[in-house]
Amino acid sequence: MGEDKFKNRFEKLIEQGKEKLDKSGWNGVDYKGGGPGLTEYSNFFYSCLELIKDYFGDNSAFYIGLEKIMNDPKKIANPYYYAFCYGILEGAYNKYKEDIK
């Protein structure tokens, strides 16, 4: 996959995640506006997982962090972890930007 496609995928997910966190009232600790739904969380989570695996591979710290959430039934079924997923995505995006300089 070309660099432009990775960049576009990262930017789209970052924008989507930030928008959702803002609308949900995420204050760094809790959601004050209701939080994301399970379907939104699942879609976002697996989109992030796939992108990170495609770019960094499944041995990267970013992928492993998401994998820990995925392998915990209490976390993967809990939209509260949307913010954690976003944090991992944001870290991966920052690393991606460093790599392409």
Main sheet attributes: strand count, strand direction, barrel closure:
none
Number of separate domains: 1
Mean pLDDT: 94
Elements, N to C (H/E): HHHHH
Low-pLDDT ranges: none
Global morphology: globular
> Total number of helical segments?
5
What's the Cα radius of gyration? 13 Å
Structural class estimated from helices and strands: mainly alpha
- Rounded to the nearest angstrom, the distance between the terminal CA atoms is 18 Å
Strand fraction: under 5%
- State the helical fraction: over 70%
Give the total of beta strands.
Answer: 0
Description:
The chain is mainly alpha-helical and 101 residues long. It has one domain. It has five helices and no strands. The protein has helices spanning 3-23, 38-56, 61-70, 73-76, 82-100. Helix 1 (3-23) runs antiparallel to helix 2 (38-56), helix 2 runs antiparallel to helix 3 (61-70) and helix 2 (38-56) packs parallel to helix 5 (82-100). The two termini are 18 Å apart. The model has no long low-confidence stretch (mean pLDDT 94).
Secondary structure blueprint with pairings:
Blueprint lengths: L2 H21 L14 H19 L4 H10 L2 H4 L5 H19 L1
Helix pairs in contact: 1-2, 1-5, 2-3, 2-5
Task: Write a concise synopsis of the structure shown.
By secondary structure, this protein is mainly alpha-helical. The chain has helices at residues 3-23, 38-56, 61-70, 73-76, 82-100.
